[in-house]
């Protein structure tokens, strides 16, 4: 699910699954970042890492002509919903709840306090001096109460030992003869990500700790 903000005070919510429609996530983001009607603020809900979805996400400024988001909607691959602009916290919670409702999973949120976060700055192709700040949060250590009761240590916790530096290097690593390394590290963990446009100077002052404090907890 991708959420973009209109300058008219509305938000555009794109519903779809990148696993079923490869490129839906990255093309939706590219559509929003290149459309002047939007504020360049995007929230992407939890999604599972399959194929090259995250790799494509980091290529939103690519020169290749994207498939139209309208075409995704026309074919029934995605849904567009307009809603009033909400606060970041309310919007994230709404998107997370919608995601879990569509997947029919229990809506139980517990924080292990050990999630990984990486920040990637992407230059805006249309607005000189502006950059999009992409945060990726690895939720592999994210456990429900049921998980805690069934096992003293979830198998997913093996991901927690990774550091921010390791994850950042992995995102930027080049392995032409091997599968993209992020898939080996995170598959099939769940990610949350957020892209916001800001002045380059301001973006440099966005800290990971500030972003982590905004994670949804229940």
UniProtKB/TrEMBL annotation:
GO biological process, one term: microtubule-based movement
Gene Ontology molecular function: ATP binding; microtubule binding; microtubule motor activity
SUPFAM superfamilies reported in the protein's UniProt record: P-loop containing nucleoside triphosphate hydrolases
Coiled coil: none
Keyword terms, alphabetized: ATP-binding, Nucleotide-binding
Keyword RNA-binding recorded: no
A UniProt-annotated Pfam family: Kinesin
Domain of life: Eukaryota
Kinesin motor domain residues: 4-171
InterPro entries reported in the protein's UniProt record: Kinesin_motor_dom, Kinesin_motor_dom_sf, P-loop_NTPase
Name of protein: Kinesin motor domain-containing protein
């Amino acid at each position: 699910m991708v959420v973009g903000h209109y300058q008219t005070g509305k938000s555009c919510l794109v519903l779809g699954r990148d696993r079923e429609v490869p490129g839906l996530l990255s093309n939706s983001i590219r559509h929003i970042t290149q459309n002047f009607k939007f504020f360049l603020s995007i929230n992407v809900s939890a999604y599972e890492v399959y194929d090259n979805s995250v790799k494509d996400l980091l290529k939103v400024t690519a020169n290749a002509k994207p498939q139209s988001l309208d075409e995704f909607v026309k074919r029934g691959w995605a849904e567009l919903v307009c809603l009033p602009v909400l606060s970041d916290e309310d919007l994230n919670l709404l998107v997370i709840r919608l995601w879990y409702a569509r997947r029919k999973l229990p809506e139980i949120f517990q924080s292990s306090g050990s999630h990984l976060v990486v920040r990637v700055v992407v230059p805006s192709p249309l607005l000189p001096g502006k950059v999009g700040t992409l945060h990726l949060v690895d939720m592999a250590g994210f456990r429900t109460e049921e998980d805690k009761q069934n096992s003293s240590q979830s198998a997913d916790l093996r991901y927690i030992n990774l550091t921010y530096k390791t994850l950042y290097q992995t995102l930027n690593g080049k392995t032409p003869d091997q599968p993209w390394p992020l898939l080996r590290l995170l598959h099939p963990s769940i990610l949350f990500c957020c892209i916001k446009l800001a002045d380059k100077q301001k973006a440099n002052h966005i800290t990971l700790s500030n972003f982590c404090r905004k994670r949804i907890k229940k």
